[in-house]
Design brief:
By secondary structure, the chain is of the alpha+beta class. Helix content is 39%, strand content 34%. The two termini are 42 Å apart.
Length: 294
């Protein structure tokens, strides 16, 4: 497609971006944002479906109005509250050494899939806080292969060891979120190209603009912060931290003895960038850094 609508589902608001994909660097043509009611999303789940759909429609209308048209193709971009992403090392065991051939490659691929599902089943309650383990796999990507001593292996065809390690990037959503996205897609009456995480979208667009870059990408959200290590355009590892803008608002409210609403408003306006607040913010971000290193 030449143009798409990227729908950004956040915790506090829905954002619609109309993007031109025909240029060397993706160009933003239209932007619309609309906040949810305070009771629409509770604990990462949509509690008011009607307001949720109305909010999304309003964001799309605003984006369309700003550029004069609405593309027929959509991409769903999900925040860390809705999609969970992590990287995991899987130990693969073979019966014999030597080059992998034919049916064995298929067996290893199935074994990786089985281990991924087992890993999600273990991580799901810890990551989401929800004991109900109904989920939908959104993305799986083999980041790299290594021998057990740590020697890099180029691909499956290059494996000769009996035991080796596969590092896999995994993204998944709850079954409830998957049903919700199907509802949104039907409500918008547009062609859904794919659904992915905000982090994956950010890295894909950055690669299109700047090529195979290396660095650390941070998505600072309302409730969680997603951190991703990128090496020459490849995602090498991810981590989701239970710290976000909401935590900063609460800390600022307590620090300056003001209401949460006032702290949020002043945070957005940039009032806390004054000299008297810089030291406090520095220590808050140092705490975030320590959480990442643990």
């Amino acid at each position: 497609p030449q143009n798409v609508v990227v729908l950004d589902f956040g915790r506090n608001s829905a954002k619609a971006c109309i993007v031109d994909l025909t240029t060397f660097r993706p160009t933003l043509l239209g932007l619309g944002a609309e906040p949810y009611k305070s009771t629409t999303i509770l604990s990462g789940l949509v509690a008011d479906l009607e307001d949720y759909l109305l909010t999304i429609r309003s964001a799309v209308r605003k984006a369309s109005f700003s550029c004069g048209f609405t593309p027929k193709d959509f991409v769903f971009s999900l925040s860390g509250e809705f999609v969970k992403t992590f990287s995991v090392d899987l130990k693969i065991h073979r019966e014999v050494e030597g080059t992998i051939r034919g049916s064995e490659e298929s067996r290893i691929t199935k074994e990786i899939d089985r281990l991924i599902l087992d890993e999600i089943s273990r991580e799901f309650p810890k990551i989401t806080g929800n004991p109900n383990q109904e989920f939908k796999l959104l993305e799986k990507r083999v980041l790299g292969l290594e021998s057990l001593p740590g020697v890099r292996i180029e691909n499956l065809e290059s494996v000769s060891e009996k035991d080796f390690k596969a590092t896999v990037l995994v993204s998944f959503i709850s079954a409830q979120t998957d049903r919700l996205l199907s509802k949104v897609s039907g409500d918008l009456k547009r062609n859904l190209l794919f659904k992915t995480s905000q982090m994956s979208n950010t890295i894909t667009l950055t690669k299109k603009s700047w090529g195979n870059f290396s660095g650390v990408v941070v998505d600072f959200g309302g409730q969680v912060t997603d951190v991703c290590l990128v090496l020459k355009g490849r995602i090498m590892g991810t981590r989701t931290l239970p710290l976000g803008g909401r935590d900063l608002t609460l800390d600022l409210s307590e620090k300056y003895r003001i209401s949460e609403a006032e702290a949020e408003d002043r945070k957005i306006k940039g009032d806390f960038l004054a000299d008297e607040a810089k030291d406090y913010l520095f220590f808050w971000f140092m705490a975030l850094n320590e959480s990442l290193l643990d």
